[in-house]
């Protein structure tokens, strides 16, 4: 259990592109599944069984091991009503918790703001990737954006604060002429200073890191290794975000999905092994989500955009098992050929925000939603 001395940390791994729910968490004992998947269905003998009805993709062995240890919660049928089946709109909904309107603030940005309302630590939130994810974006809330931790830093050789300020002012003037110099300068100047400060702080992480864990030479493994380095450096970072994919498997799905889940499962296993070896795992919970699932019937080579999907929550403080009901695959119960969501994604967020991060979720998520009980209290 998390001790009083350790603040809870959340790591989000976004499965970009629409992960195929039915070929990830597989109803291998349901004949309707195989009727609908003549091309891309996973043979029953290859499925990694969790129980008599449900199993995992054959490349998810490390995650199945974590599940058997009681450290993986699988939430079935997650989504929202009237899925637009659009990557951009659906991801925007997951990021802002606004299924009916276009949201302007990310749910994790609000979490960061709640943790550090006075912006005393510019690395409270760390986004691993070439750009910051909208889930973390709230005006005035600093987030460190890292593509490569070993080479991270904006103008790292410029040490004098006055010299840095001159460069930032010059930069902001270049972009301030057309749309209002004052606000642009203020925004870019503050954003730049936050980035510089974040670079100064995070460059310490690799220097403090030593591990016997050999991460794979993959993009995702490097991101998770970077997250482990920052977490174990004790810099006060509480919210981490990265992505993996693309899972947009309209064609060539069998090989694509196998490669993606092999990389993901291996990297997650190494990440938690690394944290456990350093006594740093007990205050970390990881969330895996995708913007939607895939169509129930395959298209001869892959699967098209769908609605309901699965969410996984992993960690030492997770009540492992399955939550919610697997959606019906019967033709009369489908909508536009898709399994129908039966768990609102905001219930997952509410559980994380309230039971893990110990915050009031109503303002962050935009309402009160039923919690799911996957966090050990």
Secondary structure elements and their pairing?
Layout: E1 9-15, E2 25-26, H1 31-36, E3 48-49, E4 55-56, H2 61-68, E5 72-79, H3 87-96, H4 107-115, E6 125-128, E7 144-146, H5 161-176, H6 181-202, H7 204-208, H8 219-232, E8 239-244, H9 253-277, E9 284-289, E10 309-314, E11 321-323, E12 343-344, H10 345-356, H11 361-366
Parallel strand pairs: 1-8, 1-9, 5-11, 5-12, 6-7, 6-8
Antiparallel strand pairs: 2-4, 3-4, 5-10, 9-10
Helix pairs in contact: 2-9, 5-6, 8-9
CATH topology of the largest domain: Alkaline Phosphatase, subunit A
Largest sheet, described in full? 9 strands, mixed
Mean of residue pLDDT values: 89
Question: What structural category do the secondary elements indicate?
Answer: alpha/beta
Number of domains: 2
CATH secondary-structure class of the largest domain: Alpha Beta
Q: What is the H-and-E element order?
A: EEHEEHEHHEEHHHHEHEEEEHH
What are the low-pLDDT stretches, counting only 5+ consecutive residues below 50? 154-159, 174-181
End-to-end Cα distance? 8 Å
- The tally of helices reads 11
β-strand amount: 5-15%
